[in-house]
Specification:
With about 140 residues, the chain is mainly alpha-helical. It is built from five helices and two strands. The protein starts with 18 loop residues before the first strand and ends with a helix.
């Protein structure tokens, strides 16, 4: 007899990238693909420079593309570290607070008749202040 309860698998590997080819994720595969394409183009275009300059240029390119594809220091991709370093380099390291001198015009009240006004004080039990009661 079939069970009334249905069994559902709960995915537990949501933070893992899917593997596409040769155990590489899409991001890693694209870094290797683009890096190798750029290095091959660099190798073909720099034929006139000689092998003394061509080989180190291509090795640096291959090493850089493999580093971006495979290295994850502190469980973060290398491009995230590069972006964080660029943001850090672009931001100001020290801030200096310099207070501005207040403008006296900003401190003047709108009307000049404010000195003539007197507040009417009414205390908590409803009694009016004695001076005001005597004037009335």
């Amino acid at each position: 007899m079939p069970s009334m309860y249905q069994h559902h698998e709960v995915p537990t590997h949501l933070n893992v990238e899917d593997k596409v080819l040769l155990g590489l994720s899409v991001r890693q595969f694209l870094y290797v693909l683009v890096g190798s394409s750029v290095c091959y183009s660099l190798w073909e275009q720099s034929a006139g420079l000689g092998d003394v300059l061509r080989v180190p240029m291509v090795l640096v390119g291959v090493g850089t593309s493999l580093a971006f594809a495979l290295l994850r220091p502190a469980d973060r991709a290398l491009e995230e570290w590069l972006a964080a370093a660029l943001v850090f380099a672009a931001t100001q390291k020290q801030a200096t607070w310099v207070p501005i001198e207040p403008d006296p015009v900003d401190w003047r009240l709108a009307g000049a008749s404010w000195q003539e006004l007197a507040p009417s004080l009414v205390w908590g039990d409803g009694e009016v202040e004695e001076e005001e009661a005597g004037q009335a």
